[in-house]
């Protein structure tokens, strides 16, 4: 290591002024980063990892301020720098890439122009050459046809493409330090791998230092030299990546590692030791019963955006051929048996959500047949299904536990909603009793029943969502990435809960996910989808240990492999 | 582009037909008997019948409607009974008067309200933010006839720096050659600076009165919309890339914040155009609002119908303009027919 670190954070404390007084987001943090080093900052939500990076860039929002400590970047005291000095530092010396790349770009400015803005601001180019330089920057992040993409707007690009643009924007002025704040959250695994490989390659080639902020210990350990683990605003452990999996020192690191789904770990292994000991040994799962759901030749087509002029039609000319519709789901078939969990895996756009929405009977298939418990439910139009007696038997747990709860409904009201809508005539006391029973089932303390969603934590909201799905005793529950928005430790608990409930209540699950580790833990059988088709199907062991299809292998490859 | 405009106008046709039918019916069910009103208080029943026959009011309602529509198709909106002049001519002279006043008022309001809203959002909680709130609240809570009268009292009666509030030009000046119907522009085209000055002196007070009233919604929307955009993630990116505050605020934030401002602007404009009767009355401005109200009081159908129809057409055009503007500002918006 060099004598003088590139970035030296000493005793940093950041405070936020809130309505209930000052809150310390981070307390007495020490972090140092050598030139050319890659550092991972790992922690769950609320650990203060993002606040740390915003403090380094001095882009905390209005309410936040540096209360104590110093941030020294190659001899410059960032915490005391003037706005002018900061402007010169940002973008030129240190740059940042963000989570949710599409929102991180100005939606109404062509991406090339946005790169130009940064180049011109830091006098890296002249007006005349700006366009050429911006195109070069796009080329460096391997965007195909950069001349065309220069004029594109963020909404016209995929998430992975937008993240490349954000990287191009950050690296345009050749900074020394790159801070990547959850750069791949929300991207597919293969995209994640492509983006992370690109970042690693570019920063290494330029001898840059990188800080990678992530909740994914595996990702950090794979791509970083050193890892800093943060909990509740404090650094609890700093270690070399190659050591952290082998010898985690701090109990929190150990807990985090335990909770991370990984090959070879069973569902119970994810729980913290004390919880795992308390948890009942999983009851032997009954062998799957008769077929509950059968999907045959299912197709969903969407019309393509019509383009071109309508004038020929008006002028009596020959109408153009109608465009070939887009097939989101292309003639797929599978079965779910009673008591079984089937995983539906694939990357965004592969048709897994469309399939689950059709099984859920929220949208109508273009053709094909969905048989549920012997009845052809695809014959019932989606808008009539809501009041059909069958509705009770297929329920859904949504991806985002926050957005899927009505913010004005208490937890009890949310759980009771399906009961109230099902037309059963129950009195208030009976409904309340049922809510309490469900809350007990999902492990939601009864005093939380009268709280509103914003007064509940992510895990509690997930429990409310699950209780709501169970309210009508369904036979099949569709789980649409139910833990994607949760921290790993919460995810571990929720996954265990889901498994226990399934066995106890004898339900079947259709589990939609892009996380193969999670799928391995929960599912008996796995279906891998790509471009609307099924590319592989089999038991979890078969598919994940000995994949037959190239695409499945590609997916498995893309999962970060930390040095163990 | 032309196709979308054409489509949009085509979709407005059913609502315009609705407007024609409804205004026709409404003017017929209004209380008051046109014939007896025009025959005068001393008229005998025979004289009233005579007038009724002359006006065609003795015919059945469907017959009257058919004749109204057939005239309408030929561009004939009928004749005003009070002034005896064709409604089309009256509207053609009065609409530019109203439009000129409203546009200038809105322009002044924009000049003040938009920067005020932007600064209030950028420096949230500062004195300028509070000033913005006070100006907005005061502007909207003072009725226009009151602000108008205060202005006349102070600037004309006490200070004497403003001309008498008697219309678009004082009695001795002659209007500029009619090109756009806007005196300020026509005078400039004719290089008649004397008339320009006179017209400007006349229009200043009523325009400022209108501006004070329309400041409030524009400033509030600008502030709210800027606040929302300033807290969005791409602003954080812009700041993290070290862009100048002026670039961040104007190029990145304001352009994104403009859409709600423009929507509000369109609504305020179409509202003011027909509804600033009080300002027109206070300043004796020969606008269409006061024209329509006078006609309504006199049970004079033709001007009322003409007025409502004109406003409906204008409303359609303004909204079309706003939608097209949306498409220019925000590439994500596709103008749908």
Global morphology of chain A: globular
CATH architecture classification of the largest domain in chain A: 3-Layer(aba) Sandwich
Order of helices and strands of chain B: HHHHHHHHHHHHHH
Low-confidence stretches of chain A: 307-319
Write a brief caption for the model.
The complex is a heterodimer of chains A (564) and B (337). Helix content of chain A is 35%, strand content 24%.
Structure explained in plain terms:
The complex is a heterodimer of chains A (564) and B (337). Chain A is of the alpha/beta class. Chain A has 3 domains: 1-93 and 175-260, P-loop containing nucleotide triphosphate hydrolases (Rossmann fold); 105-174, no CATH class; 291-302 and 325-558, P-loop containing nucleotide triphosphate hydrolases (Rossmann fold). With 337 residues, chain B is mainly alpha-helical. Chain B has a domain at 97-288: MetI-like fold, CATH 1.10.3720.10. Chain B contains 14 helices and no strands. In chain B, helix 11 (245-275) packs antiparallel against helix 14 (301-329). At the A-B interface, helix 2, helix 3 and helix 6 of A face helix 10 and helix 11 of B.
Key features of this structure:
heterodimer; A: 564 residues; alpha/beta; Rossmann fold; 3 domains; 6-stranded mixed beta sheet; 21 helices; 35% helix; B: 337 residues; mainly alpha; MetI-like fold; globular
Give me the secondary-structure topology.
The complex is a heterodimer of chains A (564) and B (337).
Chain A (H helix, E strand, L loop, with lengths): L6 E12 L2 E13 L4 E5 L6 H9 L6 E10 L2 E2 L5 H7 L4 E4 L13 H11 L5 H14 L5 H4 L9 H13 L5 E5 L7 H17 L3 E6 L2 H7 L2 E6 L2 E7 H4 L6 H9 L13 H6 L12 E12 L8 H4 L11 E12 L3 E5 L6 H8 L7 E6 L2 E2 L5 H4 L8 E4 L13 H11 L6 H15 L15 H13 L5 E5 L7 H18 L2 E6 L2 H7 L2 E6 L2 E7 H6 L4 H9 L6
Helix pairs in contact in A: 3-4, 6-7, 7-21, 10-18, 15-16, 15-17, 16-17, 17-18
Chain B lengths: L1 H28 L4 H6 L5 H11 L5 H13 L13 H36 L4 H15 L2 H15 L24 H7 L3 H38 L2 H8 L4 H31 L1 H6 L5 H10 L3 H29 L8
Helix pairs in contact in B: 1-14, 5-6, 5-9, 5-11, 6-9, 7-9, 8-9, 9-11, 10-11, 11-14, 13-14
